């Protein structure tokens, strides 16, 4: 998982707002296989290895159900270490009768499902980067049917035991209101590189030659509004930069393009042109 460590910039953690914390905890423990790292009456921090936060879920006051056709989360994506891990996850979901989507993206194989609030989740395993194809500087991806029968053979009769300890937050995919200013923000501001453009509706960005750390789309409509503050959905996601110097340079780049940057006791935050909040970490 070389694309989720130095010298790459990558997504490390996501925080979601949910309607019912107890219901969501049950789902994320029993279905997804997280462990609870910390919890309180209104919030829980979840982990795969018992020490590293990957997902936080919070129940806001006066929470509203997920607003349709707004900006925010399309899905967050958990990267599993091996194809065998993905096979055991699929076996587990079938046993639990979970409704799934499934795709072969050439660079990866992926399973898709929603949490009880409609927050999208992808669980995937990468193919070796040596097998990815690049054409004119863009990685070749597709959405083809997953060969589930072939994948399940990789389980080798072993049962799902929860998320593997080496599972990571592989990427995040966001609904945005437009792409021109959004592209400037992520490329000229945050320093990502464009690796795939799907017409006028979606962009995929990465650092270090990954197939994508961030996906952006306008599938909820150009001009989609931001959800209400207390709506179910994305609260923030975090980006990890290789060094403090890199983060300082990114903060300067963001300010140079007029993007908002807040510094609260050394904790830097920003938001993209569609209002998606981002924490800038080292």
Automatic annotation (TrEMBL):
Class of enzymatic activity (EC top level): oxidoreductase
Domain of life of the native organism: Bacteria
Listed CDD domains: VOC_BsCatE_like_C, VOC_BsCatE_like_N
Span of domain VOC: 10-126, 168-282
InterPro entries assigned to the protein according to its UniProt record, in alphabetical order: Glyas_Bleomycin-R_OHBP_Dase, Glyas_Fos-R_dOase_dom, Glyoxalase_1_CS, VOC_core
SUPFAM superfamilies: Glyoxalase/Bleomycin resistance protein/Dihydroxybiphenyl dioxygenase
EC number, as in UniProt: 1.13.11.2
Keyword Oxidoreductase belongs to the record: yes
Keywords recorded for this protein, A-Z: Metal-binding, Oxidoreductase
Family annotation (Pfam families): Glyoxalase (PF00903)
Name of the molecule in the record: Catechol 2,3-dioxygenase
Organism: Rossellomorea pakistanensis
